[in-house]
Amino acid sequence: MAFVSGTTGSDIAQKFLESLQNDLKNVSLETKKKYPQIKESCEEGIVKLRNAAANPQTPVFYIVNQILYPLVQGCETKDTKIVRLCLGIIQRLMTQQTVDQKGARYITDTLWILMEAGVEEVKVLQTVTLLLTTNTIVHGDTLARNLVLCFRLHFTKDSTTINTAGATVRQLVSLVFERVVAEDNYFHDKETVKRDVNLEELKIPSNVAPKGLRPCAADAFLMFQDLVQLVNADQPYWLIGMTEMTRTFGLELLESVLTNFSSVFFEHPEFCFLLKERVCALVIKLFSPNIKYRNTVPANIQQATPLDKPYFPISMRLLRVVSILIQKYHSLLVTECEIFLSLIVKFLDPDKPVWQRSLALEVLHKMTVQPELLKSFCECYDLKAHATNIFQDIVNSLGAYVQSLFVNPQLLGQPGGLGGSSSVAQGQPPAMLAGMPVGPGVSPQPGFFSRGIWLPLVATFSSGQAKST
Length: 469
Prior knowledge:
This is Protein MON2 homolog. Belongs to the MON2 family. The protein is an all-alpha fold and 469 residues long. The chain has helices at residues 11-31, 36-54, 60-76, 80-95, 101-117, 121-133, 140-154, 159-187, 199-202, 215-231, 247-260, 262-267, 269-292, 312-329, 334-346, 354-368, 371-382, 390-405, 409-412, and strands spanning 431-433, 436-438, 447-450, 453-456. It has a two-stranded antiparallel ribbon. It has a two-stranded antiparallel ribbon with strand order 3-4. α5 runs antiparallel to α6 and α13 runs parallel beside α15 (334-346).
C-alpha cells in the first residue's frame, strides 16, 4: 500500500522500512567482495533505517533520500546483476511514492549514466516510466532530461530497446499533456480572471516558458515547441542532449498530441500561438516537395532535386497532421486551413504520383463525410468575396479525378495513363452477363464501365516487387 508522505511512525511505514533493510542487506551481500565501499554504504543505510524506525517523527522522504546513495553507487558499477537489483529497489521506492523532487533528480542522473553506458536499457525505461507516472513531482529540467533519455534510447541499435523506448516516449508525451488537462480542470473554477498574454514575447523561442503558464502547462509548452523544432531539423531549446530525431517519429508525436489534446490549444493562447506560428509554418515547409514534384515531366525540363522529391512516409504522416488541423482546429486556423485545403486539392492533379493522389483522397473523404465541416468551408471561403472557393475546388477536383480514371491510355499515347493511374486492373471489360463480367479465368464482380473503360469495384494488382515512386 502506497503512502505519499508523512513520518515513520505508522504501521505501513514500519513495514516499509523493514523491507528496505532487507533490500539493502541483499545489495550488501552482492557487493561485499568486489565493491566493499558499496557494502559499507549499505550497512550505514541499514543503521539509518533502524534509527528512523525507532524515531516515529522521522520524515519518510528524508530517510529515503539518505538510502538512495548506496543504490546509486550500485548502479554506477554498471554490473548487470547489481544494477538490476538496485533498480528494482528504486522502482519499489517510486511505487510507494516515497521519492521527492531531490530524490527524483538524483535518480534521473543515475539513469542517465546507465543510458550512456548502454546498461539494462529496458529496465531504465521502466524506471523512467514509474518515476513520471506514479506522481507529478518531476517538472522542468528534470522532466526534460527524462524525456531526452527515452528519445536517445529510441535511436539505439537493439530492436527491443528501440520498440520499448518508442512506446515509452509516446506514453510520456501524452502524460505531459494529460497533466495539463488535469491542471486546467483543477483550476477551472478557481481562477475567473482572464490573464493577459504578450504574444510578442513568444515570437522568440527560448528554454523559458511564458510567465502566465502553470507548471504542467509550462512543461507541455516547452516540449511541444521542441518537438516542432526537431521535426523542422532545428536544435531544441528545452530537450537538451538530443542526438538524433526522425521526421516520421516527430510527426507521429505531433499527430498524437493534436488529436487527443485539442482542449489545451483552445484553452491557452500560448499553445494556440505555437499552432499558428510554428506548426502551420512547418506543415507548409514540408508540403513544398509534394507540390513541386511532377510524376511526368518533359526530358528537357529539370526535375526537382532528390532532396525535394516527396517521401511517402513523411507525406503520409504530414497529411494526417493536416487532416487533424482542419477537422479539429478549423475555427482557430481559418486562413491556414484555406492554404492547406488548396494544397490538398493540388495533390489530386493528374501529374502527381498515384500514392500521393490516394493520400489526398483519403483526407478529403474524412472531411466530406462531415456536413458541419463542409458547411463551415462554404461559410468561411466560398461565400466570402475575396476567398478561395474551397468547396467548389474540392467538388471539381474529385470530379476530374473520377473522369481521369476512365480515360483510355491508348488514346493519349501514354502506356501508364494519367499520373500512372492504370496500375489498377482497368481496360476493356470482358464479356458481360447480367451486368457482370464473365469468361475464362474471370470471377464475376461489380464495377464501373464508361467510355469503353472497365474499372472493377475491387482493384487487383499483379504480384511482384513494388516499384519506387
